[in-house]
Every structure is written in structure tokens, then in C-alpha cells.
Amino acid sequence: MVKIGLQIKANLEHIEELYTSHPDYTFSLKLKCLNCGESSEKWHGITESETFQTKIGKSETHYLAKCKLCGRENSLDIIEGSNDKYTKEDQERFKTIVIFDCRGIEPVDFSPGEGWIAKAEESGKVFNDVDLNEKEWVDYDEKLKESVGVYDLESQFIKIK
Ligand SMILES: [Zn+2]
Description:
Blueprint: E1 2-13, E2 15-20, E3 26-33, E4 44-47, E5 52-53, E6 60-61, E7 63-66, E8 73-78, E9 86-87, E10 95-103, E11 105-111, E12 116-120, E13 126-130, E14 137-141, E15 146-160
Antiparallel strand pairs: 1-10, 1-15, 2-9, 2-12, 3-4, 3-11, 5-6, 7-8, 8-10, 12-13, 14-15
This protein binds zinc ion.
Organism: Asbolus verrucosus (Desert ironclad beetle)
Keywords: Metal-binding, Zinc
GO molecular function, one term: zinc ion binding
């Protein structure tokens, strides 16, 4: 069991906070099997509000699949309460926005996709349908009379001790 944090870094233009629509946001991850080293090109969707029943006991998990190569059953969970916001103060550095509890697998790539929420500074306007598929997003805040945006989104994984 390994805890892995997903960190993001971005430039925010007139945006106070950027966060996911947790618990319904779907993290798109590429996963690597730690038993055989197989890492598939397929994206897997992991959503905190969706769980799978494990075969043993009453336990539930957010991701459960057999590795196509070695057949081992691997699972992954979003740690409850680990979600965090990326704020203006966090700019130019990586910040952990969620922690995964990994059993037999590790995430190797992340696609931010849709389902982000951005809150504008001063006006407080909330943009509910921020699409970060292109790793950037731009809109206009009529109250601020300024364009708002998220640019140069990067991500990385870190092991949490
Ligand atoms: Zn495997």
C-alpha cells in the first residue's frame, strides 16, 4: 500500500481558487502495474462518488481491475478528505490536490479533462464548467471587466510518507 499525491501547478489570471467538482470529478489516470511493470496507454476514470465492491468482505474501492498481462488484481482509492484547492498563493509551485491509496498499481500520467471549478478574485464569480483538456482555459468576468484564465497546467505525482 503506497500513498501517492497528485500535484498540479498553473498560472492563474484573476482567479482566486481552482478546484475539482469533487466528489463527482473524474480523475483520468494512466496506471502502471507494479507486479509486472505493464503500463497501458489506456486512460482510467476514477471518481470518489463511484465505488466498486471488492471480492473479499464488505470493502469498497474506487478502482479495481485485473492487470491484462500478469492477471493480478490491483486497486486504487481516493483518500477521503484529501482534496485540496489550488489558489493564487500556490502559483509557480506544485501543490497536492488529491491523494491516492494504491495497491499494486501506481499512476504514471494524469489528464485534467473537464469538471473543474474556478473562482474569480474580487468579483467572486464561480465558473462551474471549466474544461482543462487543453491544459488551459480562458473566459471573461463581466463584473471584473477582465479576462480570467488558467494557463500552463502541469502535473506530477509524489510519494507521500
Ligand atoms: Zn501486471
